[in-house]
Structures are given as C-alpha cells and as structure tokens.
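User: Modeling request: complex.
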Amino acid sequence: MTMRRIVVVGNGIAGLTACDSLRSAGFDGELTVVGAERHHPYSRPALSKALLHGDHHLQAHELPQPTHEATELLGVSATGLDADARLVRTDGGGELPYDGLVIASGSRAKRLGPAEGTAGKVRELTLRTIEDAVLLKELVASRPSVIVIGGGPLGMEIASGCLHMGCDVTMVSDVTPLSRQLGDHLAGIFTSAAIRAGLRMAGGGKAHLAASDGGARVVLADGTELEADLVVTAIGDEPNTGWLSGSGLFSNGSLRVDSRGRLRPDIVAAGDVAFFPTQRGVRRVPLWTSAIDQAKAAAVGLLRGDAAPEFSFQPYFWTEGFGLSLKAVGFTPVIGPPDYAEAGEGADSMLLRWGSDLGSGTAAAINYRIPVPKLRRLANAGPEALQRIVPAGV
Amino acid sequence: MKIELDRPRCEGHGLCEEAAPQLMHLDDDGELVIDVPEVDGPELDAAKAAVRICPVAALRLAAA
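Assistant: Request completed. Predicted assembly structure:
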C-alpha cells in the first residue's frame, strides 16, 4: 500500500535514524515521532564516558539538531497499539493513525530493588538517561563512597568515572568484569588497569540491597556485607514493550524482526527494543551502531518490503575507562588469547585479532587510533590485509 | 552545505568514513580529513549519514 503517514515510536538514535532514513529513501509524507524523553536525541554512549569523566564536558552527549521535519511529540509516551486499526495510543488520550509504524521505543535500566517510590526503598541509581547522568555527576562531585553492582561495560565505565572523580569505589561482580561481553583476555586487560587505578573488587554471589543509616548496604549471597554512600546498579536493560501488550506482535515474549526489520509488512522495529537475525543467531544488541544500522534497514524495509536489501549486522563496540580506550569490530566475547598482537606507540597501546571458525574474526584496538574501516579489514581478512603489521609474540 | 569538523571532539572512531568514504577519511595517524567539504545533491545524504553516526557529534553540516 502507499505510505502516506508513518509514525515512529521512540526518539533515541534509532528513532532519529529511522526518520532520517525514511526521508533519504524518498518518503515525503506525514512523519510523526513520539518520544517519552523530553529532549531531542542525544548520544547515550557519551553519558558514561566523556560526560561522566569530563570536568568540562556537559555537552558531550549533544547531537546535531534533527533535519527530518517530522512532527515531534516529545515527553509523550505511547501507551497502546491497535495493529488492526493501525492506531498508536499515547498518554493523555491521543491517537495517532498510521500506514506504517516504526517501533524504536528502546529499553530501560533493569533494577535490583523495587521501583522508585516504594516504601522503605534503598536509593538505587541507574544510568540510562541524561537526567540519570546529570544526577550521578552531581552526587559523585562530593566524592562519596560508591558501590557499583554489575561488571559489564556500563558498570565499568561508571566505576571508572567515579574513581576519576576521586570516589572510593567497589565493583560487585560475580565474574571478572567484562568477561561475559568481551572474553577473558580483554577483560583481564581492563580489570588489571581498573585495580591499578584503585578499583576494589567484590564477588560473593547475587547482591541484595538493604537499608542502612545514611547510606546503602549491599548483602551478597555468601553473606558478605558492603556499605557505601551510593549504590549504582548496571545489571542490564529490558526492552520497553509494555505499550505493545495485546498487540499480537510478540513471539516468545519478544519483538523478533526479519532480515529487513519487519514484524509485519506495515510494522518494523529497530534499536534496543528489537531482536534481529545475526550471523550468530537471533539477538538483541543494544549498542549505538547496532541501533543506527538496524534503523536504516528497517526504514527501507517499511517502504520497499521484499525489495529492500537484507540487513547484515557488522558489530562495532567501544568502551573507555581506567586510562584505556577500546574499539572492537566483530563478534564478542572472544575465546582465549589473540592470534595476532601488535604493540602501538605509547602505554598500553595494542592492536589485537582473533580468528574465527565462522568466517570473519574479531579485531580490537586498545589506546590505538585506527579507523573502523581498517579495523574491519583486520577483523575480516586478518593481518595480511593491513600494511606494516607484523605478527608478534603474544 | 559545508561539512565542519570539531577536531577536539573527534575520537577517531571513523564511523563517518564508513558512512561516506567518498567525502572523508582517517589518515595514518587516525586524524580525520574532510576530503570534500562542500556537498550537495546526491552526496548530501552520505554527508548527513556521516554526521549522524558520529557518537560524539564531532561533525556538523552548515550552510555553505
């Protein structure tokens, strides 16, 4: 059918990219974007990196103004979908009819304790939105003691930022931080740097929050008790799909799109909310370039259907902390030590590559400035694809 | 339109080069070089994609 009205639910980078891509692909009809956040899209990765670490980087998250000329409903949440009537409902009783729908409603931080406002609740900070980041930055300015629960990339970036601000920081993680996401080798490099920077590590099983005079207490499954002024949890995210309840779009409780981003011919999904096919199976990949690349594919999938190109996911990931800056291309975690390593100039500078039985490998650059296209060549074809790279002992 | 680079913000990810290799590249030192600063017509879309994918907003499109 002809698309005259397209509604985009979600105004993060996926929603923004979908709007831009719809316009680039020639859609000149009525475009409406509904965003629960009151702001134009911003760079979420910057919140736990430059914004948290920087002394003068309160604009580190800001992106260029949108140019897609959509009607923007900011601070408005979608509350329901009638997929047969092609109607999105919003809070305040609004109804938005559409010919095509882009679901880019993102995800939210998982919490360890009950929701805010629950009686007797221990204050649990999370970092997902710009408001979360500004609050955390304000709180750590007075150098409180901090417990960070969750040793993924976000938790480690938060820990690094708090240490940088002069806080006493304890990381609670059952496994070596970053090992689940990156593999033992890269996790080891980051964890060593973190310990050198003064990060205290605590394991001991599942953590629970408990009330404490003036601060917060964390009790681990093995009985270990920790106390600090602040507790920040970074234990993952969950897709914002509550508004789709009863829509009939779920399979096994999740939104699973096809290789063109489609749930149905008239509904696509992209970004942190969506599971999509990758070379390693159907996955949700809540990362910056993943959201952008999914949104581009989904926009064309919505307009052109089967004539749209299929989406081929090419992972790109970066993290910073404890004086290290990592860029990685290819699927992670990687198993074992790298097949190739090349030292760069300067401290802790290295270029690493892991081969894979499944075709393209994984390449990682630590404190090593290298363009992503070059890093991708290294990941895909191995060191012979690059000039001046000599295999070195690892 | 003119592609403008805020060099201090650039972290050298090079995602812009992937989006618009005909317009910009990172040199051997990882510094971004804008090869075609003035863009219009079909290259404008590539320039917009490059500006949009930068996670630190180091690029911007301004009226030429």
